[in-house]
Fold this protein.
Amino acid sequence: MKYSLVRICKSSAAVEAIPGKKTKLELSELEDRLAAAGYMIITNVGPIMVVRKGEKGVEITIYDTGRLLLKTKDKERAMMEIREMERFL
Amino acid sequence: MRLISMLSGGIDSPVSVHMMLRKGHEVIALHMDNRPFTDDTHIEKVRMLVKRLQEVHDTEIPLYLAPHGIPSQETIAKNCTRRFQCVMCRRMMFRTGEVFARKMGADALLTGESLGQVASQTLRNISTESSAIEIPVVRPLIGFDKEEIISVAKEIGTFDISIIPSVCCTITPKRPSIDARPGDIEREEGKIPIDGLLKKVMDGVMRVEI
């Protein structure tokens, strides 16, 4: 699924991305796919999952609505992380 | 009095600390570490805030961190009704504060709560959150509006630290309850091991150098 990047409010330190169409992710299935692809699953609480690729990767919060929150201020880096993750979503 | 400040890194709690320090009370700061549902910036912000408050009042304020995102928030989110997340989160914070206060010989908790400011600060929710503990809670900002709090924060030099960009809590539900009744929350808490969680949290409490 294709994602677009949205910069969130000025007071925040994160970049948000939203899916191109309305979606509902099954995070327990997605967890297996991401783990197999080398993502570290930090937590999966049902409607929200937090993952990271490698020790120095950007921490990504994935909502079951498809929304992604990337804990970085670097838009380009965020976009690279999103492009890498898109194929699993 | 010796007070345990539930210091968040936001605008309000440092102002509540200032209010009580200027009256001559002793404050120990406890930050509930909400990672991975926030980011590392909060830890640095509370260190800077404590440093600033120490300078303003020329006194030592010991700072402690308690793990909260994992295990407490995670366990609540996995097992309980979504709209009660914030009230249950705060009840766990208060419980942690209470046990920590007993350990440190403190008389009360200190918060920056201001009536009606956010969903967890409606009168009903404040009452339900407080019903989890027996220790008194001091709330010097309860009747202040945000502009008044900001004005004091600017005066004492904590405002610019509090507004350093950081990730807000990511586990907040879309529609948090603003009218949580103690009975409903106690039923929800029956689904999770409160005492076990509290023990895990207390085992993880650590002092932070300023």
